[in-house]
Amino acid sequence: MISSPPSVKLLLEDPLVVNPGETITLVCVPSGGDPPPYLEWVRPGGEELPKRSVVNGGTLTIPAVTVDDSGAYSCVASNNVGNPAKKSTTILVRGLRKGRFWITPDPYHNDDNIQIGREVKISCQVEATPPEELQFGWLKNGRPLRSSERMVITHTDTEVSPGTTNLDIIDLKFTDFGTYTCVASLRNGGTPEISIDVNISSTTGGSSPSDPIPSSHWLQLMRSHVNGLTLCL
């Protein structure tokens, strides 16, 4: 009887992109080896499999996946002939996290005051999995805002994480007062969107678009909220 070392293959996509809460099944089958190899699923670095996972031979089932389950998984085949064989895959659980924003010039820095007639840039940054599915949108007072000559919207390459979008308000005017919302979502859904609100308002009461606009008219930018959590600058 001639013995032969093990070989193995995976019956799944790589990477495997899934939504939070889904049940996923990773299937590994021997493609060679005599005697028939023993199969087991492991994680790199000795990390344990999710406690709720179920292993049945070469099949690994993980119910209700979370972002914590993301990462590499390997199927190892061994039969005490030659070296064990291994095939790996990566699980990516869709998600958005770490929403943050900043304003240029910084209104909380004494040397960088925001004035009527100046340019203001609001930047919004979000980490996404997978990064190529990230998409941004802007709202003003709850209504969609489109890029124009005076309201310029730009985005960085979405395949580079974290993703960033910028709103440049050119020649700031009283009519620009309001609440600006950056909305981040994933193109294929599967996870709640993240929204960041920034309120631009006058620090002096009684001002209106018909009032004279002093060149040193200061503005107040309120702290924003990301899904109800206050972001501190």
From TrEMBL:
<dbReference type="GO" id="GO:0050808">
    <property type="term" value="P:synapse organization"/>
</dbReference>
<feature type="domain" description="Ig-like">
    <location>
        <begin position="105"/>
        <end position="201"/>
    </location>
</feature>
<protein>
    <submittedName>
        <fullName>MAM domain containing glycosylphosphatidylinositol anchor 2a</fullName>
    </submittedName>
</protein>
<dbReference type="InterPro" id="IPR007110">
    <property type="entry name" value="Ig-like_dom"/>
</dbReference>
<dbReference type="InterPro" id="IPR003599">
    <property type="entry name" value="Ig_sub"/>
</dbReference>
<dbReference type="GO" id="GO:0005886">
    <property type="term" value="C:plasma membrane"/>
</dbReference>
<dbReference type="GO" id="GO:0008046">
    <property type="term" value="F:axon guidance receptor activity"/>
</dbReference>
<dbReference type="Pfam" id="PF07679">
    <property type="entry name" value="I-set"/>
</dbReference>
<dbReference type="InterPro" id="IPR003598">
    <property type="entry name" value="Ig_sub2"/>
</dbReference>
<dbReference type="Pfam" id="PF13927">
    <property type="entry name" value="Ig_3"/>
</dbReference>
<dbReference type="GO" id="GO:0007156">
    <property type="term" value="P:homophilic cell adhesion via plasma membrane adhesion molecules"/>
</dbReference>
<dbReference type="InterPro" id="IPR050958">
    <property type="entry name" value="Cell_Adh-Cytoskel_Orgn"/>
</dbReference>
<feature type="domain" description="Ig-like">
    <location>
        <begin position="6"/>
        <end position="90"/>
    </location>
</feature>
<dbReference type="GO" id="GO:0043025">
    <property type="term" value="C:neuronal cell body"/>
</dbReference>
<dbReference type="InterPro" id="IPR013783">
    <property type="entry name" value="Ig-like_fold"/>
</dbReference>
<dbReference type="InterPro" id="IPR013098">
    <property type="entry name" value="Ig_I-set"/>
</dbReference>
<dbReference type="InterPro" id="IPR036179">
    <property type="entry name" value="Ig-like_dom_sf"/>
</dbReference>
<dbReference type="GO" id="GO:0030424">
    <property type="term" value="C:axon"/>
</dbReference>
